[in-house]
Design a protein that fits this description.
The chain is an alpha/beta fold and 217 residues long. It is 41% helix and 18% strand. It is built from six helices and nine strands; from the N terminus they run H-E-E-E-E-E-H-H-E-E-H-E-H-E-H. Strands 2-3-9-8-5-7-6 form a seven-stranded mixed β-sheet, sandwiched between helices. A two-stranded parallel sheet has the order 1-4. Helix 4 crosses helix 5 and helix 5 packs across helix 6. The longest helix has 20 residues. It starts with 10 loop residues before the first helix and ends with a helix.
Length: 217
């Protein structure tokens, strides 16, 4: 699945894939937003597999091709999301990119259906790549990722959105500074817009969990 280029899918295949993926996700266990406790008003912290989270939208830390990761078994969030959403997600992303006519710039976001994931939508954003010393421009681009995703959530009337740790994996953004930017940007957005969209900070690593715990008090 992860190495297949975008191409038409038969209804028969879609049915078989959907049954398989939904069963596989259910076996992992689905976490609902209403089962979580807020860390502060409208903001949650949750450690786990983002592909098992049932909320309105989850955020995918995508690459500039916006087609998912093509490396088999690569444990990045992009690969995991595309795997459990199914091949229709890659086809939809390919259609978006063909219409756009150029790679996705850092700091922006696109929304797609979630297909076989338990959430309703996937919001794809490309974070900045850090090679060497962190710059103010890279910090602003990361903040823009969060603002763009939140704006899309508002435009589409979504009540909840779950953020992964954008840019902190192979993109090299320092984890603590990335978390500080994420939390501050979300807090500023909620204060400035009076947004009622609930935000979940999803972490996988214990180190990120501790960082966010301290930032969220």
């Amino acid at each position: 699945m992860n190495v297949r280029l975008p191409a038409p899918l038969s209804d028969e295949y879609i049915g078989i894939e959907s049954d398989y993926l939904r069963e596989a996700t259910a076996a992992k266990g689905i976490t609902r937003l209403d089962g979580l406790s807020p860390a502060e008003d409208g903001i949650y912290l949750w450690q786990g597999d983002i592909t098992t989270l049932e909320c309105d939208a989850i955020v995918n830390a995508a690459n500039s091709q916006l087609l998912g990761c093509f490396r088999p078994l690569h444990n990045c969030v992009d690969n995991c999301i595309h795997t459990y959403a199914g091949l229709r997600l890659r086809n939809t992303c390919a259609g978006i990119m063909k219409k756009q006519g150029h790679e996705e710039p850092a700091g922006r976001a696109k929304i797609t259906p979630a297909y076989d994931l338990p959430c309703k939508y996937v919001i794809h954003t490309v974070g900045p790549i850090v090679n060497g010393r962190l710059t103010a421009r890279q910090e602003e681009l990361l903040a823009s990722c969060y603002r763009s995703c939140l704006a899309l959530a508002e435009e589409n009337g979504l009540g909840s959105i779950a953020f992964c740790c954008i840019s902190t994996g192979v993109f090299g953004f320092p984890q603590r500074r990335a978390a500080e930017i994420a939390v501050q940007t979300v807090r500023d957005h909620r204060a400035d817009t009076k947004s009622r969209t609930e935000v979940i900070f999803n972490v996988w690593k214990d180190e990120d969990l501790e960082i966010y715990r301290k930032l969220l008090g």
